[in-house]
Design goal:
The complex is a heterodimer.
Chain A: E1 4-6, E2 10-15, E3 18-23, E4 28-32, H1 35-43, H2 50-56, H3 64-76, E5 80-82
Antiparallel strand pairs in A: 1-5, 2-3, 3-4
Chain B: H1 3-8, E1 16-20, H2 46-58, E2 63-67, H3 77-86, E3 90-95, H4 102-109, E4 114-119, H5 125-132, H6 136-149, E5 156-161, H7 169-178, E6 182-187, H8 194-201, H9 205-217, E7 249-252, E8 257-259, E9 270-273, H10 279-286, H11 288-293, H12 308-311, H13 316-321, H14 337-345
Parallel strand pairs in B: 1-2, 1-7, 2-3, 3-4, 4-5, 5-6
Antiparallel strand pairs in B: 7-8, 8-9
Helix pairs in contact in B: 4-6
Classes of the chains: A alpha+beta, B alpha/beta.
């Protein structure tokens, strides 16, 4: 199963709408527009797998697919590392 | 809610903070936004600057744009750069290149979280030096060579677009390419000494349309969201396309005063000072000026225009320093509404920018090269 972690070159800053993620290498800014997604991004590396991280963040089952897609997008943008 | 709407309500900390470190400069560019020249005796001390950096780190400001004046003229410039980088506050600094020696370039290439922006305003010496002073093109391109030779990577070549250089956009792109650099174009503002030359140097309506087309065709060229007023011509340009003043952007000047953006160094847009008890964070979060800028805007005279959602009325600083009402069209409104408003305003209402820190008397225009 895919394992994600926050990219070591990324800074994450909470905002009222969710969070801003800044990649110090590419100097790109990404908007995370959902508080649960921010929680998942922050904690995903601490869990055994993505499912556990989503459950712990309170993501309902019916929305799992959307969150998995969002996480893959964040990996593509190098906000998350992926192995 | 759209991202732009969220941005316009303001953020917990700025995304894009400009910090002019000194009013001292060894050039005297005719369009200088900060009317720089002489250092100000009240400029922040090294310790005060370090405190500002610590505050920015605590607020998780990801990076700061350092400028001036010529920031590298401060004897503590490199110390402050290291302090910022050590706190994970990235630094992008603007320079005329005069202090980017081979050894400075090597040092910069070895430092993470640093980006360098070298300013030129013409793709050849004649066009550039007419704005920035004799010899300044050679100095800037020498610095670019040093950065390229040192393996710095993709630094920035920064150009203020004027009536005289707008025909050179392809040449600027080629020049930046030749050094492995990225081109950055920004808008000429009637701020600082720019107020005196704006009428003669701002791009014409026809040039604006060509510029817009060129920018759409060159999406890798950076603009700092400078030209969002051109989005009223059709497809929006890349970027947030809104005025970020006091919402996502602000400026700290060399004496620690905080302004809504780098282009409005005027009392009316001063939010406070980093020297106050609460420091920068308190100014950003509680200044009445910033709180009012984060309120929903009134489209004013632009309400009936179909393009308002695209251009949001344009640039506050450009309006202010050309004497136009802030809730009306930008002086360079692509539909010509600003031109009409300027005719009616006839310049009588333009606020005085003063001479700022412009050096009096003869200005040394040749900046000496260091001995090889």
């Amino acid at each position: 199963m895919t394992r994600y972690a926050l990219h070591p070159q990324v800074g994450l800053r909470d905002e009222a709408f969710g969070a801003l993620a800044y990649h110090y290498g590419s100097r790109r800014l990404t908007f995370l527009n959902d508080a649960r997604l921010v929680t998942v991004v922050r904690t995903v590396a601490d869990h055994d797998d993505v499912d556990a991280a989503l459950a712990a963040a309170g993501v309902p089952d019916r929305r799992r697919a959307a969150y998995l897609t969002a996480l893959q997008r964040l990996a593509d943008a190098e906000i998350l590392t992926c192995e | 809610m759209r991202v732009t709407d969220r941005m316009s309500r303001g953020l917990d900390a700025p995304i894009c903070l400009t910090w002019e470190l000194t009013y001292g400069c060894n050039l005297a560019c005719v369009h200088c936004l900060s009317s720089s020249g002489r250092r100000d005796p009240r400029e922040l001390t090294t310790d005060e600057c370090a405190t500002v950096i610590d505050d920015l780190a605590a607020m998780q400001v990801f990076y700061v744009n350092i400028g001036g004046g010529e920031p590298t003229l401060r004897p503590d410039f490199w110390e402050l750069l290291d302090h910022a980088v050590g706190r994970k506050v990235g630094v992008k600094f603007s320079t005329n290149g005069s202090r980017i020696t081979r050894s400075a370039a090597t040092r910069l290439a070895a430092t993470d979280y640093v980006d360098v922006q070298i300013s030129i305003d013409g793709a050849d010496a004649a066009t550039n030096d007419a704005i920035r002073g004799a010899g300044s093109f050679d100095v800037a391109t020498t610095a670019m060579r040093h950065l390229a030779d040192a393996g710095f990577g993709e630094f920035k070549v920064s150009v203020v677009v004027t009536r005289d250089n707008v025909s050179q956009l392809d040449d600027f792109a080629a020049l930046a390419d030749s050094f492995g650099a990225q081109l950055r174009l920004t808008r000429l503002r009637p701020s600082g000494r720019g107020a005196e030359v704006w009428d003669a140097l701002h791009v014409t309506a026809e040039q604006q349309r060509d510029l817009y087309t060129w920018l759409l065709a060159h999406p890798r060229v950076l603009t700092g969201d400078s030209f969002f007023h051109l989005s009223a011509l059709g497809e929006p340009l890349p970027g947030l396309n809104l005025c970020g003043a006091g919402r996502v952007v602000c400026l700290i000047d060399p004496v620690g005063d905080v302004y809504a953006c780098p282009f409005v160094l005027h009392d009316q847009f001063k939010a406070g000072t980093v020297r106050s008890a609460g420091g920068f964070a308190d100014v950003w979060r509680t200044s009445p000026l910033f709180l009012s800028l984060r309120e929903p805007e009134s489209p004013g005279a632009c309400a009936s225009c179909g393009s308002y959602d695209a251009c949001r009325g344009g640039c506050m600083a450009a309006k202010f320093f050309t004497g136009l009402p802030l809730d009306g069209p930008d002086p360079e409104c692509v539909h010509g509404h600003g031109e009409a408003a300027l005719l009616a305003a006839s310049g009588a209402g333009r606020p005085s920018a003063g001479s700022g820190h412009t050096r009096s008397g003869p200005v040394p225009v040749a900046i000496g090269r260091r001995p090889a």
